[in-house]
Every structure is written in structure tokens, then in C-alpha cells.
Amino acid sequence: MNDQPYLSVVISAYNEADNLHRGSLNVVIDYLKEQNFTWEVIIVNDGSSDNTSSLLHELANRHSELTIIDNPHMGKAAGIATGVFSAKGEIILFSDMDQATPITELDKFLPKLRSGYSIVIGSRSGRPNAPLFRKVLAYGNVIMRALILQLPIKDTQCGFKAFTAEAGKRIFQIMNKITPPRVISGPAVNPGFDVEMLYLGRKMGYKIVEVPVSWRHQESRRVSFVKDAIAGLTGLLLVRFRSLTHAYKI
């Protein structure tokens, strides 16, 4: 494979044995093998306590395009940052292991990237089959993002996003300097991570576009209405505070 692939797919994995047994990563590989560009997949094992690491290394032994990085448990944001800094591709795509948004939706992203957009993000219209509280959270987040950050993006939280390598690496360099990764315990979802990433991208002048994508609801033990609502608002206020205090030195 070319040492400088066109596409790098980055996935942060925490206790993903069930999804791996269901063949979610095989679906990604099968799709990419049908494309006419070079690619790599970087999976960052976020200190999983199940057998995610061994399953990933077994797959990597069969597919040379896979790179497995074993991190201590630092959360999804740190896992994605690790993958971004290791990526060699011209384009970097973030995707979730459960494939809630299928990898085939990349077909909608590539024309946008080739036409000059630096950041392309998936937008989940209506969120079919999602519980009511998730839809309420999503609607509330849209309003609060507009009020607090003037960020005109409908869906910041979809786990399917693509960046040019230049944009992705610059954004994550700033984010890592502000919040250096650290070892944590227990499940960690940081809703402010996606907002900060996109806020920085817009502040830095990168062209951003939302693209409607297919999405299917996946149950998660890591979701709590009250905790997520508080965390979401806290994340927005923190980004605003950092902006006002000139923490984002670009």
C-alpha cells in the first residue's frame, strides 16, 4: 500500500468486543477495499477492559492496512487525537465502531472535500428510533450552541466527520495544548469535545459543511439525560470562556 494514503479512517475503541464480534470493522474494510484510492484504518484502543485489544490485533495480522494503537484509558477525545496525529492520509475520517452511520456515507463526503471544504460533518435528520430524551437533548443543544457560541451547526455530535489533514492536525494541536490527555477511570464521553473542535475550525477560517447521513440508533450505557444535559451546557460555557480569555491562540 502507498506510504501516503489518500484516506485515513480513525476509530477510538473502548470495550468494543461485541461490535467486533458482529463484524462492524470488517464492514469498513470491505467497503474500503472496493474504492479506487489508497487508505488506512487506525484503531486506537482506549484502555479497554475486555478483549478488544486482542481482537483488533488479530484483525491487523490479516489486514496490513490496519494500525492498532493501545492507549491507556483517556477517553474518546484522546483516542481520536492519537489517531489524527498518527494519520498519514490527505483526508482524515472519524467513524464510530458501531457504524451507527455506515461507512458508505463517505460517498457523500468526498465530493464536498474535493470541491474545497476542509471539514465535512454528518447531520442526523430526525434521529429515527432514538428515544425522546435524546431528541430533546439534541434540540436543546442546537438552541444553546446558537445562543452561547453563535455556532450555526445543527448536529455537532454525529460521530462521522471528515477533515483535511492540515485542518485536523492544526485543530487538535490547539485542543491538546489546552487540555492535555490524561489517564482516567470508567466510561468517558465528553460532549464538549465535538463542539470545541468545530468552533475552532470555524474560528480558524476553515470551510465547514453539514451533509445529511443515514443513522440508526444504538443503545448505549454511557448516556444519561441529566448528566449529558449538564455536561453539554458546561462544555459550551467552557468553550465560550476560553474564547473570551483568548486561550485559543491561532
TrEMBL record:
Alphabetical list of Gene3D superfamilies matching this protein: Spore Coat Polysaccharide Biosynthesis Protein SpsA, Chain A
Highest taxon above the source species: Bacteria
GO terms of biological process kind: protein N-linked glycosylation
Segments forming a coiled coil: none
Domain Glycosyltransferase 2-like: 8-162
SUPFAM superfamilies: Nucleotide-diphospho-sugar transferases
The protein's name: Glycosyltransferase 2-like domain-containing protein
